[in-house]
TrEMBL record:
Entry keyword Protease: yes
GO annotation (BP), single: proteolysis
Protein name listed in UniProt: Peptidase M20
GO CC, one annotated term: cytosol
PANTHER family linked: BETA-ALA-HIS DIPEPTIDASE (PTHR43270), DI- AND TRIPEPTIDASE DUG2-RELATED (PTHR43270:SF8)
Domain of life: Bacteria
Domain (Peptidase M20 dimerisation) ranges: 197-354
């Protein structure tokens, strides 16, 4: 608690940090939601203003679905290396079914925490990192490293067109020493997590139409229904232990190397018991033993039914055989698996097993990326974090979540490290999204030290 109080005091007394905290308030107040096509250019323009005021050379490119902002702080040092910060300024909505103590698009402060949509995911990281750049420049004549911020506006919608922007500006970005990922968090032990990857994903809709109209259920013994047909089709693709039964998928999976397995074994905290407690599970987990649980979570693909819809779900009874059934599906991917290829294998599986009437429609896909965290620039981050984080550091080669790391690495070939200012209960995408003020300031200090390490 003493450390937190000290960090809060420094946050409150730091003029530069307070300047950008006020700008964060404005950023939170400006909705920027790609899924609803709300406010993207407005927020991108505001970011352009903020970074130009800070002395950066700024490019705002609105060529594709969401504006792309690139802000460059050049170092006068000959042959200076380059440090990239990747962020996004779009957020998910603050849906009416979410519980917020205060207004989601007004940054509020309570009991040492900041609350607001995007404060962790991901606008708070932008202002914290810019604060660190300005704090360094306030005490030094120049930067020892070139610093480039790249900020996209469609991350929450599979980073639509990010690959096009990266290709367009590849000459500015390739060859950098390190790319710092959008965000990161402290785990439940307070350790700062530094990660180097994420799973990919392919999402798709499946649908069956078995008749022109719903049928009286008296025919249930002689007429098949869309409901049973689709349920049987889905059941054919996964066994009761959660293993995917689609032929050819596991043969393409790139197995983790010894260092990647060792990092997860040493630092991952998730297990069967913690998942049961966290989510109030009433069904057993699909893997109970710790090493099997972690291997499944971090290094293996998974198939999930996101939603299933068929028939009559209103009040009372309606005795019908439903003529239509549909479901939303996903497969979380690991290295070796490509979204469209996985979907092609699923279509082939359905036909092979007699479910050719299932219509499969691709919705989105992202590749996966994983790092063994051994690049020198990543090892430098780890050592800096250890010195500045009394609670300790947890190094992970990947995360169970999904993001465009593969897209960025494929385009730029730059080592990537993800760390940030979130906490184990930051509630990203939920009500009362939050970050600790102490963690916010600690992130500023770590980024400032990272810049100084290039002197």
């Amino acid at each position: 608690m003493a450390k937190q109080a000290e960090q809060i005091k420094k946050f409150e007394e730091d003029a530069i940090t307070q300047t950008y905290f006020e700008k964060l308030k404005v950023l939170i107040s400006k909705k920027s939601i790609f899924a609803q096509q709300v406010g993207l250019l407005d927020v991108a323009t505001y970011l352009q203003e903020i970074f130009e005021e800070a002395g950066a050379e700024v490019t705002l490119d609105n060529s594709y679905a969401a504006p792309f902002v690139m802000a460059k702080f050049a170092s006068p040092v000959a042959n200076a290396k380059t440090l990239i910060f990747y962020n996004h300024y779009d957020t998910v909505p603050a849906d009416s079914d979410q519980i917020w103590t205060d207004q989601p698009f007004e940054l509020s402060v309570r009991d040492g925490y900041m609350y607001g949509r995007g404060v962790d995911d991901d606008k708070g990281h932008i202002t914290a990192r810019l604060s660190a750049v300005q704090k360094y420049l306030a005490t030094h004549d120049h930067l020892p490293v070139n610093i480039i911020f790249i900020m996209e506006g469609a991350e929450e919608s599979a980073s639509v067109d990010l690959d096009k922007y990266l290709a367009k500006y590849q000459s500015h970005l390739a060859g950098a020493d390190l790319l710092v990922w959008e965000q990161g968090a402290r785990n439940v032990l307070g350790q700062l997590e530094i990660s180097g990857g994420n799973k990919g994903i392919v999402t798709f809709d499946v649908a069956v139409k078995s008749a022109e109209r719903d049928i009286h259920s008296s025919y249930g013994g002689v007429i098949d229904s869309a409901s049973w047909y689709l349920m049987a089709a889905l059941q054919s693709m996964r066994d009761r232990d959660g293993r995917i039964l689609v032929e050819g998928i596991y043969e393409q999976v790139e197995e983790p190397n010894e260092r990647e397995l060792a990092l997860v074994e040493a630092f991952a905290l998730a297990n069967s018991e913690s998942a049961t407690e966290l989510y109030g599970l009433t069904l057993p987990t699909l893997a109970a033993e710790r090493s099997a649980f972690l291997k499944r979570l971090y290094f293996e693909p998974s198939m999930t039914i996101e939603g299933f819809s068929t028939g009559y779900l209103g009040q009372g009874v309606k005795t019908i055989i439903p003529a239509e059934a549909r479901a939303k599906m996903e497969v979380r991917l690991v290295p070796g698996l490509e979204p469209h290829d996985v979907l092609a294998k699923i279509r082939k599986h359905l036909v092979k097993h007699g479910f050719e009437q299932v219509e499969v429609t691709f919705t989105l896909g992202e590749m996966s990326y994983r790092s063994d965290m051994s690049a020198p620039s990543i090892l430098n981050v780890i050592e800096l974090a250890k010195r500045l984080t009394p609670e300790g550091v947890a190094v992970l080669p990947t995360s169970p979540g999904t993001g465009p790391m593969h897209t960025v690495f494929h385009a730029l070939g730059v080592p990537i490290a993800g760390f940030g200012l979130g906490n184990a209960n930051s509630r990203d995408h939920a009500g009362d999204e939050n970050v600790s003020i102490a963690d916010y300031y600690s992130h500023i200090e770590l980024v400032e030290e990272l810049i100084a390490s290039y002197e």
